[in-house]
Write a structure and sequence with these properties.
With 286 residues, the protein is an alpha/beta fold. The chain is built from seven helices and eight strands, in the order αβαββαααβαββββα. Strands 3-2-4-5-1-6-7-8 form an eight-stranded mixed beta sheet, with helices on both faces. The chain is globular and about 40 Å long. 44% of the residues are buried.
């Protein structure tokens, strides 16, 4: 298993991409046909049953009812992203979706963005992982005008970490659902930014999101190293090809101590209603 660190989480520094469009690196043309990552201008059907399925769910209720961090990893990017979609939607239908792409990449037919499942106002598309870097200088300067000298160290640390987030991240953390449930941020293809952020930056960023009332769901389409255990829940998907999802298995490596997934026991995805409904609606080709 790889020992590469898990990347830090953040959001793009630009505004949300226009629906049906994936922005490329700075300097690329913006005319029709001049950019990769076209997204169909439509929305797919919302998946039924947003919450855990009561006694039928192998997940603990606190995974959805309170802010937490969840890492989902495995060799199939399509399978990881669809599972990420299922878990984020089970937390709140108003989840935010941050997609880390690369210029010229061809999306799989079952990618949630290509399927039109992510409304444009909650879709964030980025192709420059370096844009996700925290702004340490801004945080340091802003502290002089915002914090009293007698504030406790924990408060200083939290404010500093919040200020280091890109401006759009700060705005998104203000969009927590009004129904009292945690907000949810799903981050896809996090393996693409693992070289940008050292693992010691992960806990503070996750803490900022939790304190703001947000759960963070991270998709990592590769073998994840020991840094994965910085998350509250760690889920491994054993399946090389998404089309064979009915025989693929889910293994919880951290966070679940009761039920079918306890103690790292494998459970077929077809036996997990939250995930199976999403995979069924994706309609894989035979």
């Amino acid at each position: 298993m790889s020992t590469n660190p898990i990347p830090q989480l953040s959001l793009p520094t630009s505004s949300p991409a226009p629906y049906g469009h994936m922005p490329g690196p700075v300097g690329e043309p913006t005319g029709p046909g001049g950019l990769p990552h076209r997204v169909p201008p439509r929305r797919g059907p919302r998946v039924d049953g947003h919450g855990p399925d009561g006694d039928a769910s192998p997940f603990p209720s606190e995974m959805f009812d309170r802010p937490s961090s969840v890492l989902v990893y495995g060799p199939s990017r399509a399978l990881v992203n669809l599972t990420l979609f299922a878990l984020a939607q089970a937390t709140t239908p108003e989840f935010q979706w941050l997609d880390i792409g690369v210029p010229g990449e061809e999306r799989t037919p079952v990618d949630p963005v290509r399927l039109g499942w992510i409304p444009e106002e909650r879709l964030w598309l980025i192709e420059r992982p370096d844009a996700l870097r925290p702004d340490d200088l801004t945080a340091n300067l802003a502290l002089f005008g915002l914090i009293r000298s007698d504030e406790p160290p924990t408060t200083l640390a939290q404010v500093a970490e919040f200020l280091r987030l890109p401006q759009v991240s700060q705005r998104i953390l203000a969009t927590r659902p009004s129904d009292g449930r945690p907000g949810a941020l799903a981050v896809t293809n996090a393996h693409r930014v693992m070289a940008v952020f050292p693992p010691d930056r992960v806990p503070p960023i996750l803490s900022v999101h939790r304190n703001a009332g947000f759960s963070v769901f991270v998709g990592y389409a590769d073998s994840a190293g020991p840094g994965r255990f910085l998350f509250d829940f760690v889920i491994r998907l054993d399946g090389e090809h998404a089309a064979g999802w009915k025989s693929s298995q889910m293994v919880c490596e951290k966070g679940i101590t009761a039920g079918p997934l306890r103690d790292g026991r494998p459970v077929r995805l077809s036996e997990i209603p939250i995930v199976a409904r999403v995979l069924t609606k994706a309609k894989f080709s035979p």
